[in-house]
Amino acid sequence: MSTNLSSGTRHLGPEPSPSSPPPEIVDALARAGSRLGPFSHGVIWFATIGSTNDVAARLADGGCAEGTLVSADHQTAGRGRQGRSWVSPPGAGLYVSLVLRPTREAAALLSLAAGLSISEGIEAATGLKTHVKWPNDVYVSSRKLAGILAEAGTSAGGLQHVVVGCGINVLPAAYPPEVAHRATSIESELGRPVDRGLVLAECLAALAVRYAALRTGRSAEVLDAWTRRAAPTFGRRVEWDAHGEAWSGRVEGIDADGALLVRTAAGVTRIVAGDVRWI
After folding, report:
1. How far is CA 11 from CA 19, 65, 79, 99, 116, in A?
2. 229-244 tens-digit pLDDT
3. Which CATH number fits domain 23-229: 3.30.930.10, 2.60.40.2000, 3.90.226.10, 3.10.25.10?
4. Which of 146, 147, 151, 242 is deepest in the core (most CB within 10 A)?
């Protein structure tokens, strides 16, 4: 599977019971209807949960349907890539995990497609223009608005699955000092309230389109769209560690497999996994 997929670290323990989703979530998903594609089953909603990815992974292990959607108003153990925590203030964002059963080819670009879809969905719902940054973050200028965590696993019967977790900052919130200077929200950028349900519905509808493209061999469409939304990051310097050394160069784009292409003094380097530091 994709080098940007992780196997995940589950926080096991007692699991709260689901609750009724907020009316704005229910109404927006109902209005989107068939546009949601595999995500039209409805949402399993929690007032507070450790991690939506962990709950979705348990459901996937048990053979739940593709497109199963788990969401929460608050996460106490939300996480991002590279083992980082994802701050999830109550009621301030969308914390969503989706169960997918992609082909191997589709899985390879699923993280990119998810980031692209979040960017497209936010713009469709609110008019806010954002850009993506490799491998799957969504930014407004230099501030992070949303992130993706895709974790692969094997369900009952040996069926491969991928849980795609999405965290989107919707309302302004009191973020910890270590992230406050680099985080933003949709409402902070627009200066007005937004419909959280509509944002979720449009992001899911966009992902349904991009996921269908991956599953039907039209990955070039996804890569082209991602590249256009990532244009502000091209030419920027990055640093990363490999083989016990620190490397640096300028971003040139991505290749057909979704690897980041960086121009260094020694030529173009492909980065397929790990963390890069944007300078």
Report:
1. 20, 23, 11, 18, 28
2. 999 999 999 999 988 8
3. 3.30.930.10
4. 146
